[in-house]
Design goal:
The chain is α/β, with parallel strands linked by helices. Helices cover 37% and strands 22% of the residues. The chain has eleven helices and 13 strands. The strands form three sheets. Strands 1, 2, 3, 4, 5, 6, 12 and 13 form an eight-stranded mixed β-sheet that branches. α2 crosses α3, α4 packs antiparallel against α10 and α5 packs parallel to α6. The longest helix has 22 residues. It is globular and about 65 Å long. The two termini are 37 Å apart. The structure holds N,N-dimethyl-L-histidine. N,N-dimethyl-L-histidine binds next to β11.
Length: 359
């Protein structure tokens, strides 16, 4: 595991997310491979100055449920606005992507594929059946999503692809009968925001490599605060909601490390902390140590035990959520070979869905 101080992001995270899923199902200190991979990542992050852990660590079973809860919070406008845009413009999005041709729809990090239903239903207004290829590391999440979708939209033919989309991945080839079809790849939910911009660009370039000229990329992106748009206060509220669900989501990271690595974080001695980093255009989540304290990770399978010191007020950086302007995201898509051909936003321009086409 590299220990260079590159930014920690979802890329590194997804590298081992399969491993960590396995780890979460096992006892904290079994010393198996998955556990030691997780231990290395955590050790690396806690040795950094400032301390930083990758955001994918949030998503154990509890973290995934908490995130689902976040998406329903009144303050978390991202999911709500993106869904509204799909409801209002799905037909336009599908027509623009297809340009009169049949579409096959691919989705990265599909999860529950909840918002996608609207787009698939719109595609079915134009073609009798649609192939839908959700790509996700979790086979079980894909199974649930696919069987629900097929129940609701029987003309959707699901082809689940179990893969870590941040690594090398391929798609099942199109059949001869589909050779004229267009592909539309969905990367929605502002997932791009949890990647460092450089990594986001590399990932878009990888997507470009698996697509054909004319294929589309539909990207859902949270927009940066601006005069006349959302204000910083509204952004802060989205990441520090009144009911404390996001705080619990953040804190669950420590609970996970206690369970899976046998650490002894005292969760009562840390507090949820969020801030808007204007110069980097990102929301940051941290866990702030409320007192001077040591955290102990026991020795496992020959690996040394680990003592980590937290000074009072010291912060552990747990997530970046980058916010783009319509210009910066268009530039990024352009550089990756997907010039923007259409875009849809809400009236206040809080959130955008952009269609780029591979040229
Ligand atoms: C998954 N991702 C787009 C969410 C975000 O807004 O960055 C994760 C999240 N973190 C706190 N609340 C939601």
């Amino acid at each position: 595991m590299a220990v260079a101080c590159s930014p920690l992001s979802m890329t590194e995270a997804h590298l081992d997310s399969v491993l960590s899923e396995v780890a979460s199902a096992e006892s904290p200190v079994t010393g198996n491979d998955s556990n030691s991979a997780l231990r290395e990542i955590v050790r690396d992050g806690l040795m950094r100055k400032p301390k930083q852990l990758p955001p994918w660590l949030f998503y154990d079973q509890t973290g995934s449920q908490l995130f689902e809860e976040i998406t329903r919070l009144p303050e978390y406008y991202l999911t709500r606005i993106e869904r509204t845009l799909f409801h209002a413009y799905a037909a336009e999005m599908i027509a623009a992507a297809g340009e009169g041709k049949r579409l096959r729809v691919i989705e990265l990090g599909a999860g529950s594929a909840d918002k996608t239903r609207t787009l698939l239903a719109a595609a079915l207004e134009r073609q009798a059946t649609v192939h839908y290829l959700p790509v996700d590391v979790s086979a079980s999440a894909l199974e649930v999503a696919c069987s629900r979708l097929e129940g609701e939209l029987p003309a959707v033919r699901t082809v689940p692809v179990v893969a870590d989309y941040t690594r090398d991945w391929t798609l099942p080839p199109m059949q001869a009968a589909e050779s004229e079809d267009r592909q539309l790849l969905l990367w929605i939910g502002s997932s791009i925001g949890n990647f460092e911009p450089q990594e986001a660009e590399s990932l878009l370039k990888r997507i470009h490599a698996v697509m054909q000229p004319g294929d589309g990329l539909l990207l859902g992106v949270d927009l940066a605060p601006c005069p006349g748009g959302k204000c910083v206060g509204e952004l802060l509220a989205a990441y520090d909601d009144e009911s404390g669900v996001t705080a619990q989501f953040n804190m669950n990271l420590l609970v996970r490390l206690n369970r899976e690595l046998g650490a002894d974080f005292d969760t009562g001695s840390f507090a949820h902390w969020v801030e808007w980093n204007e110069s980097a255009s990102r929301m940051e989540m941290h866990l702030e140590s409320l007192r001077d304290q040591w955290v102990h990770f026991p020795s496992v399978a020959g690996a040394q035990d680990l003592e980590v010191h937290f000074a009072a007020g010291e912060r552990l950086h747990t997530e970046n959520s980058y916010k783009y302007t319509l210009e910066t995201i268009a530039t990024l898509m352009d550089r990756a070979g997907f010039p923007v051909c259409e875009r849809w936003t809400d009236d206040g321009e809080w959130f955008a869905v952009l269609l780029g086409r591979k040229n």
